[in-house]
Amino acid sequence: MIDLAELRNWLFKGLSVESKLDDLEAEGVSVRAATDPAALQRVMSLDEFSSTIRRAAMHTLPAFLAFFCLENAVREIVVQRLAENHGADWWEKAAPRAVKDKVTQRRDKEGKNRWHVQRGANEIYYTDFGDLLLLIQGQWTDFEDLFPDQHWIANRLNDLEASRNIIAHSNQLDEREIDRVKMYLQDWIRQVG
């Protein structure tokens, strides 16, 4: 015989766990995505696309997430270091003229579409991935304690940029490239923290 109170308690606990898992996923903690292809569909339905496109998206998703995190982590370090060493107006003092000009043009162009969300409040969000390396190299003394040498950071970011551009233009990386991205991300985390 089924004890209704026990069943109700079991069901409530199950719903509570699902709610907590949903909360974790909303915070960016992947708890089901690797084993549950529908996890992404809870965020945004992809039902209208072919299975080929959905499969490619799921294959590409981990690399896209890795690049999103890495690129923004590099931005954070650049802003943090340059603001600490050059003040709040570090952009004017420390950014190379070519990067400033590109960012100004990009902001002006995007500013004409006031209906569209802006990339970010600061100039750093208008830079290209390669510009971040220029910022680091241009103010090397602000970063030299983080990296073994300029060659190390240049190699990693240049190699990653090639893979990043493939992902950013909605293409897939093969397993060899994904392995390289994983290795470089591990290098970054070990080096920078």
How would you describe the shape?
Answer: elongated
Helix vs. strand class:
mainly alpha
Task: Give the helix tally.
Answer: 8
Distance between the termini: 56 Å
Report mean pLDDT, rounded to a whole number. Answer: 86
Relative helix content? 55-70%
Spans of at least 5 consecutive residues whose pLDDT stays below 50 are: none
The sequence of SSEs as H and E is HHHHHHHH
Largest sheet: none
Q: Quick one: how many beta strands?
A: 0
Strand content: under 5%
Number of domains: 2
- Rounded to an integer, what's the Rg over CA atoms? 22 Å
Please name the defining characteristics of this protein:
8 helices; elongated; 193 residues; 68% helix; mainly alpha
Protein model, in words:
The chain is an all-alpha fold and 193 residues long. The protein folds into 2 domains: 1-45, no CATH class; 59-192, no CATH class. It is 68% helix and 0% strand. The chain has helices at 4-26, 38-43, 51-86, 90-94, 97-111, 129-138, 150-168, 175-192. The chain is elongated, with a radius of gyration of 22 Å.
Secondary structure elements and pairings:
Elements: H1 4-26, H2 38-43, H3 51-86, H4 90-94, H5 97-111, H6 129-138, H7 150-168, H8 175-192
